[in-house]
Design a protein that fits this description.
Largest sheet: 3 strands, antiparallel
Distance between the termini: 88 Å
Strand order of the largest sheet: 2-1-3
Low-confidence stretches: 332-337
Number of strands: 18
Strand content: 15-25%
Radius of gyration: 27 Å
Shape: globular
Number of helices: 14
Number of domains: 2
Length: 559
Amino acid sequence: MFTFSLVDDPWLVLRPRGGGPPRTCTGRDALINAVDFEGLVVGLPTQAPALFRQFLLPIVWAALGPPGGRTGWLTRFRADGFTPEEKKSLNDHFDEQLDRFDLFHPQTPFAQVAGLRTSKDETKGSALLVATAATGNNVPLFASRTEGDPLALTPAEAAHWLLHTQCWDTAAIKTGAADDSQAKAGKTTGNPTGPLGQLGVVMPTGRTLYETLLLNMPYRTGVIPGDRAQWQCAPAGPAWTSRAAKGILDLWTWQSRRIRLVPRDTDAGVRVTRVVITAGDRLKEIPDFEPHTAWTIPPVGKQTREQGPLRRARRHQPGKAAWRGLDALLESERMSAGAGKASAGFATSVLVSQLRDLDRDLPSDYPVQLEMTGISYGTQSAVVDDVLFDAIPLPLAALASDSPARDALLEACEQAEELARAINHLSGDLRRAAGADPIPWDKGQRPGELLLHILDPLVRRLLSGLRKAGDDRDLVERGLLAWEQSAWRHACDIADRVVGTAAPGVFAGRVVDDNGRERTYRLATADGNFRFQLRRTLGRATEAARRSVATPEGEDDDA
């Protein structure tokens, strides 16, 4: 009989605190000594939130209970590690549920269904678990293997991909389980993606694994009757249901698929080469207490009186840096950016809102980071197009509604977008002057995107600098001036490239009929409009340049 304990067998790779090579640890060691590690090491960014939600976070919550409000949360955070009493509770929980954490247990395999089979008793290659492996219609670009190549997973690798599948699996048709009355012709249709596939996941991280665990625990959520982690409930069978989450433990350990790993002995040891994956429980809606996402509030015109604002989880956009969505994440109250008649509103995530409440109790330069994770699906969400990941430093001072750091961040992000638009308008006007149409927004690469790519490290440097500046308005202003002057140089450099590659004839220009009104597009006009937008957008840099010209060298302009 095969066995692999997620409690006492090594399977989690962790970075030791203070440096050193990564260590492969047991689940017990990872949690009991969480303060000794900086964080997880994973093969794919989307594995991290899956490991936190399906294993690490619910174990702490189930064993120790909710943080106990703001005061209880701060007590835990300031303890800098689990107390002896808490470690005993964690160990007791592990020991009480030990069989349920066995990956290959004959009756209760972890996050699986024992004896799960299809009507034809078929199994499929273990590549079906691996989001980056070629299988069926899901064939990653430049994949080095095909579906016919066997993929032998170690028990540790299989555990990672098992939890990843429960969180991120693709949608569409799934093989039907033999004893599932809802399966038709051996298949189930209408399956959604895993629950995290419907979100733009936002996870705050701290200096240690222990701090990251606490930063991802909402302290306003208490004990909800009937809420249990999947290993605390009766073992799941092949049948599935569509229902609402009972509470945060149920949500974190949601079983979106019915799975059975098929291990076998090999010369290299136990390996998982075959799996059975069928339909699992369907989440009726993303609940309001979902902590790992920001929200979009539809325009008022699209809301109904009966239902009120229909909040929709915000998903990350491929190719868009995380700082370009800070306007939603930095909203000081979860509903403060209300929707207008035609414009959508924002609601920040539970955990970012919680950080705002804690900003006076944490050091102003506390190095919290926001990790943004998501998957971009294609063709009816049945294939993985791309894995999205970004991480940005978050100045705690920027979470206060009256903070100069917050105003500075939002201003800098908007300036970057304005500069990109100005570059795109310059390009469009020059193309019109040459007799061509502007580059469509959804086709090709517009030069404004290149500018945003170049400005990306500058914005991140500003984020780090504002963490140190805190509420010091003079430091914030100096940081913004330095940002604007750098952004000015880069914007002018891209503009020069656009002008340098313009087609012949743009100097003389061209007259275009614009809805019955004649407009002349020429190089001088396009460049003049760009320079005007540049000065209007970067006011500090404009004023600094004017003063440097107006003040003769060696004289003090304040004299």
